[in-house]
Amino acid sequence: MVFKVSTVSTSPIDGQKPGTSGLRKKVKVFKQPNYLENFVQATFNALTAQKVKGATLVVSGDGRYYSKDAVQIIIKMAAANGVRSVWVGKNTLLSTPAVSAVIRERSGADGSKATGAFILTASHNPGGPTEDFGIKYNMENGGPAPESITDKIYENTKTIKEYPIADDLPNVDISTIGVTSFEGPDGKFDVEVFDSADDYVKLMKSIFDFESIRKLLSSPKFTFCYDALHGVAGAYAHRIFVEELGAQESALLNCTPKEDFGGGHPDPNLTYAKELVARMGLSKSDTGGEPPEFGAAADGDADRNMILGKRFFVTPSDSVAIIAANAIGAIPYFSSGLKGVARSMPTSAALDVVAKSLNLKFFEVPTGWKFFGNLMDAGMCSVCGEESFGTGSDHIREKDGIWAVLAWMSILAHKNKGNIDGNAKLVSVEDIVRQHWATYGRHYYTRYDYENVDAGKAKELMEHLVKLQSSIPEVNKIVKGIRSHVANVASADEFEYKDPVDGSISKHQGIRYLFEDGSRLVFRLSGTGSEGATIRLYIEQYEKDASKTGRESQEALSPLVDLALKLSKMEEFTGRSAPTVIT
User: Fold this and answer.
1) Which of 232, 246, 316, 486 is deepest in the core (most CB within 10 A)?
2) Angle subtended at Cα 545 by Cα 540 and Cα 547, rounded to the nearest 5 degrees
């Protein structure tokens, strides 16, 4: 079929500034006339011509509501902008890490490589007609667009007057694998629908020793549960865990991807992954029966993960530190050593201690995976992580939830080499974590999220905290008045980062209060929600005395929590007597 290109007149729409995770709004906002189209064209206009004309682009996402409509719109706009080929995961499904892998690893039948991708996701936010939708652009390295590009996109949204679209192009059948070809003003245009899992599974098999994991899963002593929370991870779970590794089908929970995530909140934490938490023996109500040895969950687009042992929660900060500490021995991909490690600033300093002990390069970066990507592209970082349930490595340029689960399975397999057969007791997730604390010390850690706070009030709270930092002696007077036994504040600042690769400077990345005993309070406004503001409060206390690493986190952190809430005047500014989520 030959298609024609039409030019549609439009005008700027307010509020289309992409954050570190792209543009996220309610579905009803995206459905406004020209809203999605304006953003897509603003993105095309921000890219160099060679990354659009004659290029190959990936367009897929987590399958949330409105994805199928959005894919067809973007295909028609890509055709009109002179794109040569669009690759779409079957049924629009590709996890965010899989998109990164496809950009980096996949070749078309003609040898073509993708130069970028539109990823349709609002990550861990709810989906459905009244919930959230999102879009972001990833570059040819497989990672999120840098600020230089997202700034251009935003500027373009403020001046856009028209966009081209091949509106007579019929909708492509995205439920069937194959290539559909068209002819247009710039020549041939193809849409290729391909298997969502093939490229990603191939990559995972090149990183991990699947045979050793399969042996662990075959042991009657080892039981396992994986909860996809009805997100896109379900498109990979059966293929990897059941077909490749031999797990029982009954080990999979909520692994059918749904447009509304089954009405749930696809955020893998102790609050929202209720069914998994109960099955692992961590809920207040006893479900009866013995919990599995190992459990894990994913978010909507499968880039985040939660790791659980039997009646035991592993903090994301501990998780990345433990993976780094065990990677060389347990994961073939790292057998020749680690180039370096990195964490986001709010993440606990557990990884710092491992890096120092193993003499590894270490980096502390702002929140946002693109900062890790820069380090990885420069060959400076192998393993990285965020406290917000994001863990990954330099195999791609996104955090990777299933990778993290396979990393933990690899560590468990490695630690249990001699225990799988016979009567020997398995080394458990809890055993591994407690041994890590005995070796490196424990970073007691919690995060309080105050979601959908009035944006003005949130800003006032942050300004109050910055103003306090002007006099550390005054801060310490307040501290002693609230909790006399808490250590003194040694320094306080707004975190600023100079990228060691490109020299760029990122300011206002979070407010820090650093205590003399290594404890920290961090306050940050998050841009991951679609409405209002989210205040995140991070509380950390370091304990290197092995005899004191077994306390309950709430008990150990109670003085610092009380201090943080009173120092920030949280209830006064937000009107909230309790956080929305505690992690």
Assistant:
1) 232
2) 110
Question: Which residues, given as ranges, of the chain have pLDDT below 70?
Answer: 286-288, 527-531
Say whether both 182 and 82 belong to one domain.
Answer: yes
Q: Would residue 208 count as lying in a domain?
A: yes
Task: Confirm if 551 and 475 have CB atoms less than 8 A apart.
Answer: no
Rounded distance between C-alpha atoms, residue 102 and residue 140, angstroms: 10
3-state secondary structure 179-224: EEEEEECCEEEEEEEECCCHHHHHHHHHHCCHHHHHHHHHCCCCCE
Residue type, 186: D
Interatomic CA distance for residues 306 and 253, integer angstroms:
14
**Residues with active-site annotation:** 123
| pLDDT of amino acid 529 | 54
3-state SS, residue 454: coil
Q: How many domains does the chain contain in total?
A: 3
To the nearest whole number, what is the mean pLDDT of the chain? 94
User: Which phi-psi region, left, alpha or beta, contains residue 289 (left: φ > 0; alpha: ψ -120 to 50)?
Assistant: left
- Residue among 566, 328, 567 nearest 577 (CA): 566
Q: Which helix (H) or strand (E) holds 45?
A: helix 35-46
Entry pTM: 0.93
SS3 443: strand
For the CA atoms of 345, 315, 362, 203, what is the dihedral angle to 10 degrees? -110
> Which tokens is 379 given?
């060959």
Q: What is the dihedral of CA 410, 416, 417, 420, to 10 degrees?
A: -110
Q: Residue 157 belongs to a domain with what CATH number? A: 3.40.120.10
484 and 550: one domain?
Answer: yes
What CA–CA distance (Å, rounded) separates 546 from 497?
33
Residue 342: give the domain boundaries.
200-438
Q: What is the CATH number of the domain that holds 489?
A: 3.30.310.50
What is the enclosing helix (H) or strand (E) of 558? Answer: helix 553-568
